[in-house]
Amino acid sequence: MYAIEQIKEYLKPEGRIVLSNLKKKIIMIGEQVQDDEIVKNAGIVVRGLGGLKQYLAVLTSSRLLTTDKRKNFISYDSDKFSNMKFYKKLTTTEMRFIYNSEEHALSFNNVDLSLSFLSEIKNSLGILPTVQEDTEKRKIIRVMKPIKLHIEILNGKEQLKDQGSSFKLLQTKPGTIEISVNNQSPKT
Q1: What phi and psi, each to the nearest 5 degrees, are found at residue 50?
Q2: What's the rounded mean pLDDT across residues 119-147?
């Protein structure tokens, strides 16, 4: 019962909504903490694009406890971790490791609380991680597509025969319109 309260205390900075959403998982994992274990930290593991699904991860003195997609309990013993690598992406940091000769991965949001939980994992397990950061950088590229535009002059004589991708219409006085195509000198 004391482990459940400790987990809740570590998750308080995440907010009340997170605590209520993870209530069943907190109880399930808290009941799995043994009497001789000390809860060192708790954090949120995310899955899916953009980290939409949140799961609980608890670090004890001898294990890392979490759940899988089907809400089954998973326990990783501290002495069986190897080849730990961290991949920093745009919104998450992925921790990959070998456990019992199988590759596993956990993803954490790039927020202060999750990053402190990750550093606690690094320190607690005593494994010097092979830092291999593949930073996924997305560049915002503004692509200007030419807009096909048909201008029909309803009053007066049609004089626009130029073609281009940039049209500027300016009415300086009633009955007069200046038309500039591709930033050239305007025609009245």
Answers
A1: 75, 10
A2: 61
38 touches 30 (CB < 8 A): no
First to last CA, the chain: 83
Rounded Cα distance between 41 and 21, Å, is 18
d(CA 53, CA 110): 15
User: Is the whole model's pTM more than 0.85, yes or no?
Assistant: no
8 Å CB contact between 181 and 167: yes
Rounded to the nearest 5 percent, the helix, strand and coil shares of the chain are 25, 35, 40
**Average of per-residue pLDDT values in the chain:** 76
Q: How far is Cα 36 from Cα 128, in angstroms, rounded to an integer?
A: 26
Tokens of 25: 């998982």
